[in-house]
Amino acid sequence: MSDQARIVSVIVPCRNEQDHIEAFCRSVAAQAVPEGWALEVLIADGLSDDGTRERLAALCAQDTRFVMLDNPGRIVSCGLNRCIEQARGEFIVRLDVHTVYADDYIAQCLATWQRTGADNVGGPWKAQGVEGPQGTVQRAIAAAFQSRLVAGGALSRDLAYEGEVDTVYLGSWPRQTFERFGGFDETLVRNQDDEHNLRIHKGGGRIWQSASIRSTYFPRASKMDVFRQYRQYGYWKPFVMKKHGQAAALRHLIPGLFVGVMCLLLLLTAMGSLAVFSLPSGALRTAISWGTMACASTLILQSILYGLAVYAISFSIARQQGRELMRHLPDVIAAYHFGYGLGSLRGWWDAIVRGRPDPAFGRLTRGKAAAR
Asked: Could you tell me where the DSSP H helices lie in 101-222?
């Protein structure tokens, strides 16, 4: 490394990634860094117990640009902060182990920052599943993920969008961003990036998405893993909203409101039915009966409309991405929405009533079936 070179620091949180860490490190080592820049790679391991640490230590011994750090906190926000504390670069790029990057990914991050002067820059969030019959479910998960209809219009799913956004996938920052807005909130297991971006926005900073920053993310490979993952995303969002007194975007509220209304209608229908059977004939019983029928009818109508919308979106996605995905897409879309919605409801309860998060929502959700 030249003494005159400017340093770009890559920061990576990881935990139990023995099947993927070697391929990831090789891809980062192959990045084309612009002339005049040198690369350092800081990987914060969350006390892995599956052999990741041993493989990572061997890789670091072979390439001095790579450094392994301990992350006793184990979660992403802690790992990112440990890396930022040790980073020497004037520009910092976050990478994820389960994403494949274009050879010029880091170079484009630098170019976008230099062109826009934004406080955080990144590319669109492109998801992809493995090919072949074994990857059908994962391809359905990726196709639903990519749909802006499923994601509530999130610009991060638009692969061609160029401009300011409220949040960006992964992110890359000039060091001054952390000096001005601070690091990541270590009380958050999920949504630490959304919270950090909201802090940037509220502080007058800018976040920029560029289509030239290209990467491919490999999502969970099972519907249940997706449900658990998005239940975590939904769970931690209320803690972000409580901290800042606002949502980063309206789409973050909709799944919780939708599922909450369904649960409320179901509860009122059940309570009304019990009351009708236990009360004698009279005006009160008649009124409760009519109210119960109204709740039940509304619940049925809401369910039918949602089901029709899900099948219409599924058909549209399958027509573009492959008809073999159709039999999985409705389940996948429901897993995204109901996982996020149920997680949000539980998160609001713990954030407002209990006043503290449940440690159970800090566990890993990526199962062994997940593939690169």
From this structure: 105-116, 136-146, 175-181, 192-202
What pLDDT, on a 0 to 100 scale, did the predictor assign at position 372? 32
Name the segment(s) of the chain with CATH classification 3.90.550.10. Answer: 6-124+159-221
Tokens standing for residue 129: 């599943």
Distance CA 238, CA 355 (A): 11
Helices vs. strands in the chain: H and E counts, helices first: 11, 10
Strand partners, 8: 39, 91
Assigned CATH topology for domain 6-124+159-221: Spore Coat Polysaccharide Biosynthesis Protein SpsA; Chain A (3.90.550)
Alpha-carbon distances of 341 from 166, 175, 267, 313, 346, rounded to whole Å: 21, 36, 17, 19, 9
C-alpha–C-alpha distance, residues 179 and 130, integer Å: 40
Type of residue found at 59: L
For residue 190, name the pLDDT band (cuts at 50, 70, 90): confident
* Alpha-carbon distances, residue 218 vs 55, 70, 139, 371 (angstroms): 22, 25, 9, 7
Q: Residue 367: is its pLDDT beyond 90?
A: no
Query: Is 213 within 8 Å of 156 (Cβ atoms)?
Result: no
Instruction: State pTM to two decimals.
Output: 0.84
